[in-house]
Design brief:
single chain, alpha+beta, 2 helices, 37% strand
């Protein structure tokens, strides 16, 4: 991922052609987060109330202290965020590849950003 934007039209086209698929997807997610007015995950601090958006990369059922917990990794092109719904085994629509907007208070756990029991909106399937 390049730090600076290319200046000319030809340079932008050449940069786009030489970028990997992952770089292009990350750029698309960053643009989508900015357009939706959400905070970039990389800019989120501990205990901050945020509204973030991105794509769910993984969804797993992982018990916490004997209580079922549905965990998903949300990625917005800048950093990952663990989204955890305590007491849930599954939620309809929460699946890898799905885009969503989540809001709540960020916390740090073992060096990773976590959002527990967030309010969330699933993005329409036609926008993916």
């Amino acid at each position: 991922m390049s730090a600076e934007k290319p200046s000319g039209r030809f340079r932008r086209m050449l940069d786009r052609l030489s970028s990997s698929q992952e770089d292009l997807e990350c750029e698309e997610l960053r643009v989508d987060a900015q357009a939706s007015g959400c905070t970039r995950i990389s800019d989120c601090d501990d205990r901050q109330i945020v509204r973030v958006t991105g794509t769910l990369r993984t969804v797993t059922l992982r018990p916490r202290a004997g209580v079922p917990a549905l965990e998903a990794e949300l990625f917005d092109g800048t950093a990952p965020l663990d989204v955890v719904w305590l007491g849930r085994r599954s939620i309809t629509g929460i699946e890898p590849g799905r885009r969503l907007i989540a809001s709540g208070r960020i916390s740090l756990s073992h060096g990773r950003r976590v959002l527990f029991n967030p309010k969330y909106e699933l993005r329409p399937l036609g926008q993916e």
